[in-house]
Amino acid sequence: MSNGESDEAALKARKSRPAATVILTRIAEHSPCGLEVLLLRRSDVGAFAGMWVFPGGRVDDADEGHDDYSRAMSAAIREAHEEVSARVDRAALAPWSHWTPPLSAPARFKTWFFVAAHDDGDIAIDNHEIVDYRWMAPDRALAAALPMAPPTIVTLHELHEAGDHQTIRRGRVDPPAYVTRPGRTADGQDVMMWNGDAGYESGDADLDGPRNRLVMLNGFGGTDWIYVRA
Predict the structure, then answer these.
(1) I need a labelling partner for 167 at 20 to 30 A (CA). Which of 12, 19, 29, 190 fits?
(2) Which phi-psi region, left, alpha or beta, contains residue 18 (left: φ > 0; alpha: ψ -120 to 50)?
(3) CATH code linked to domain 10-173
(4) pTM
(5) Taking 80 as the threshold, does the pLDDT of residue 63 lie above it?
(6) Mean pLDDT of the 203-217 span
């Protein structure tokens, strides 16, 4: 391994932190997919400042498990309780996806996304790290022009397209792994690309071909974006 490759490997190891997100759901007849999801607004300081997110956070040393996946499950349960006072049974957690941010990210949280039912029980936030919350159907959340990170936006699209609440709550037998690659088109448009996009391997966002990308019309964390998958 060359010095450049070893330096990059060391950087990845230093910057990568395991994390977990839990998509809490409740039955909602008015929703096209039959449910609503809980979205939280983070305060204006810290990670994902001011953005709307699902409950979650990084895996702590106290989170039990024999590997990163089982420890992420423990973290998802803990974070749901700490952030919104929700009690989630481990057996009710179902895997949905796994996300790895680009190496350029200031803090890289390699995150397991889980789905869990929460039809009963109150939601309580601390009004410090979490300053607001909403139960929303995925399609309405997407139409609301909320500031959200790419994984949240893509996940809401997936939930909306999933079909019904039973399918969603079963999770995925083979959860997709998203490794984000940023790019910029010749006209200066920022994009986030994933596997299947014509420009994913090369980083050339202008290559003709299939698309699997988020076009950030007013920058990361903005409220104007287009998800393109074709």
Answers:
(1) 19
(2) beta
(3) 3.90.79.10
(4) 0.90
(5) yes
(6) 95
